[in-house]
Write a structure and sequence with these properties.
Largest sheet: 5 strands, mixed
Mean pLDDT: 92
Shape: globular
Low-confidence stretches: 1-21, 202-208
Distance between the termini: 28 Å
Strand order of the largest sheet: 3-30-29-28-27
Number of helices: 1
Length: 478
Amino acid sequence: MSCNKHGLLVFGIPLALALTASASASAAPVLASGPSPFASCNIGGPGTVYVNAEVEPWLAVNPANPSNLIAVWQQDRWSNGGSHGLVAASSFDGGHTWAETPQPFSLCANGLPYERASDPWVSFGPDGTAYSVSISFNQSNNSNAVGAAVSKDGGQTWSNLSILIADNEPSLQFFNDKESVTANPIKAGVAYAVWDRLELPNGNPYANLHTAAYRGPSLFSKTVDGGLTWSAPSVIVNVPSRQQTIGNQIVVNSQDGTLYDFFDLISPPFSKAAGKVAFIKSTDDGATWTKPQIISGLQTVSVTDPNTGEPVRTGDIIPEPAIDPATGQLYVVWQDSRFNGGQYDEIALSTSTDGGQSWSAPVRVNTPSGRPAFNPSVRVNAAGTVAITYYDFRTLQAGNTATLPTDYWRTTSTDGGKTFGGELHLAGSFDLKTAPNAEGFFVGDYQGLDARGTSFVPLFVQTNSGNTLNRTDVFAAP
């Protein structure tokens, strides 16, 4: 029972026989990642490091040259948080071939003076400037920071290395977490970074224990000079004690310049279902923001192997937003168990056509299979088509406890999110149990997806089933 790394077999079964009748198969995905550039680095312990394991990719398409794409990911994932460093890969042929370079966000990359890096992100401005950010931190002490860098050559080199915020020893209270960056699509040189800053009365709150935070407001920083300088961080969601945000991500309305920051708002009593999909907005380029508006409860029950109960770590508390560049219609997707009585996570979507004043009731967008679906990504292309990608376990057979067959899918809507169809099989089945174990089998809290004209380019991780020397790779489906 094996799966080749291009997803052509389903544990020895021809792909065409494994697909459901309603799904179609895409061409074989393209390998984007290569051997680890950090394989000889011995910085960052203690913990188990999975050398050659790539997880948590993100993707951006260059609006000034749509053949140019940049992918970023965690390289050499640690079992207890973060990675040796972040890697970027650039493509100049629409995602068919890739060349990678380390990003300067960790000691393994001879960059920022931190042992590990996590949460890769990248975004292109209208002039082709790419902005990338990182959470950089130490395992040996409590020092951590949000770093930023810029590429002017389509992702081949990175410069203007900056620290947006640093909480280093002897400070023991703060951990900056889950940052993202969004370039303004109509103002060259302008980009926005957001993240949550976890705090405790004492001790560094471990990055993965989000609901244990004493408090976790959202912070915001902005560049107006192409990443040469960034504004001092400011609080844009000021939560009381025992509340926090996570998964902050900005989308920009290209028509009127409005900024929308989406996030999960967590409050007691703490549980996976304690979160709420929420957002704030700014009509003055980030100078002032509204109070949080709740879109929906986030009713995740986490993801496990349906046959063994083993944990699978996913983006279960991370909502993902998108905006139609032509109309400003807003979309947000997340993991939710409401469609099956709270038994397992599926993919929920809500949309707004009036700038966030009102939102549609959540609808399920994945194909029901009686199995979990997880890690949704969403984008809208130039024709107004909405695409959502996700993993699921639909090919797992009852009684199979040896492997965890996992597939990656794309579904689309041409009517503003009212209905979805045209499901496309992107990859799989592959054995998720080969993935690094980081509080569960782990390929990332999110996966990449971007629009390229009227098409889409998914970027995702799949395992090399059974190969413990090269557990995962990053793939594109151009």
